[in-house]
Write a structure and sequence with these properties.
It is found in: Golgi apparatus membrane. GO terms for molecular function: sulfotransferase activity. It is built from 15 helices and 5 strands. The chain has a 5-stranded parallel β-sheet with strand order 2-3-1-4-5. The radius of gyration is 26 Å and the shape is globular.
């Protein structure tokens, strides 16, 4: 009798112990879900309703595809080099193997075309795929999810070694990558970029323009008789709007709809994206040093880059100066632009400081 009662007591005790354990487990689950919800609200991952108008500025001229560009080719497997938490540009890895994809994204009139021309020249003896992402219909939507899916799908399908380039805003590299692409970019002084883009839009390049570029020119309602000084003085949207005054911070902020606003949040988000995602960002005035850093850090693609850059300039294939920004506007106009481009200029100076650190890290004198 006593033995039977003891067994009953053990069964009851085990039952209550199971109940208490279950309560503790579900309490932990609830706490974890609450934490995840808080993190997701503070993050900027895309949501179904996220949208913002895109920048419809397209490539200056049709850029050649490398022979043998193939989408759908499997990415070769190789151990991925882990990066430190402070961001890839501050760990200064060196990539000597060819199993690598470089993703270049830059605002228009910042020097991207020159970098791509350099890569084509270096590619004479190499089998590097150079692929432009110029699907205007997707990019022009300005919607975060379709653009993110489009770019990541393209990057996942390309076979390395490859260089993929675009003028689209920043998007996070997400998905199943055997080895994540290296993000690089090149920027220039926001005032010089604005002047160059304004004059380029009015240049007569109909022989070399793609249909997309022709449509872009037509959409501007260009008044050819107006100079850039006139455009600013008459307060044309093309020159003095909030959109015109925040092109750089919007580029690195991305397609989140909050990035459309010109404010410090957009600026800080752009800085965070640069710190977290970009391997290196150079500047157009220091294009030669930018190529030198790329040559030392990604020799599998950019080896011999500085020498080739000099050869292209000597042959006239690349200009020493931007012909669309040879004549700068008046001091009065520049003063007004500095006020409108204040956050872009702040980000540009911040990028220049980081680029100086990148140069020193590979033994170059700044």
């Amino acid at each position: 009798m006593a033995l039977s009662g003891l067994k009953t007591l053990k069964v009851v005790g085990s039952f209550f112990l199971l109940i208490f354990a279950s309560m503790a487990f579900w309490k932990e689950v609830k706490l974890s879900l609450q934490t995840c919800e808080e993190l997701s609200q503070s993050s900027l991952h895309f949501r179904k309703d996220s949208s913002v108008e895109g920048d419809s500025v397209l490539v200056r001229r049709p850029i050649r595809n490398s022979p043998g560009d193939v989408y759908g080719a499997p990415v070769q497997s190789e151990n991925y080099m882990l990066r430190k938490s402070q961001g890839p540009e501050r760990t200064y890895e060196r990539y000597e193997d060819t199993n690598i994809t470089v993703f270049v994204t830059s605002p228009p009139s910042s020097g991207l075309t020159d970098i791509i021309e350099l890569i084509f020249a270096l590619n004479v003896r190499r089998k590097i795929r150079v692929i432009p992402l110029v699907d205007g219909k997707i990019i022009a939507t300005g919607k975060l999810r379709p653009i993110t899916d489009y770019i990541n799908t393209a990057l996942q399908q390309v076979q390395p070694p490859a260089v993929v380039h675009t003028y689209s805003f920043h998007v996070d590299i997400v998905g199943n990558y055997t080895r994540r692409p290296l993000l690089i970019s090149i920027v220039r002084d926001p005032i010089e970029r604005a002047v160059s883009l304004y004059n380029y839009a009015r240049a007569n390049n109909s022989k070399h323009d793609s249909e997309q570029v022709k449509k872009w020119r037509q959409s501007l309602n260009i008044i050819r008789e107006e100079s850039f000084d006139d455009c600013v003085r008459l307060k044309r949207a093309e020159c003095v709007s909030s959109k015109a005054g925040s092109r750089l911070i919007r580029h690195f902020c991305g397609y989140d709809r909050r990035c459309k606003l010109k404010n410090r949040w957009t600026l800080e988000r752009a800085k965070k994206n640069i710190e977290d995602h970009y391997f290196i960002i150079g500047t157009r005035p220091e294009a030669e040093m930018f190529v030198e850093v790329l040559e030392r850090r990604i020799p599998s693609i950019f080896k011999g880059g500085r020498k080739m850059l000099h050869e292209l300039v000597d042959k006239g294939k690349l200009g020493k100066v931007d012909r669309f920004a040879r004549v700068m506007p008046s001091e009065e106009t520049i003063t007004k632009l500095r006020k409108n481009l204040d956050l872009d200029l702040e980000l540009y100076e911040w990028i220049k400081e980081r680029f100086g650190e990148a140069q020193r890290s590979v033994g170059l004198k700044v």
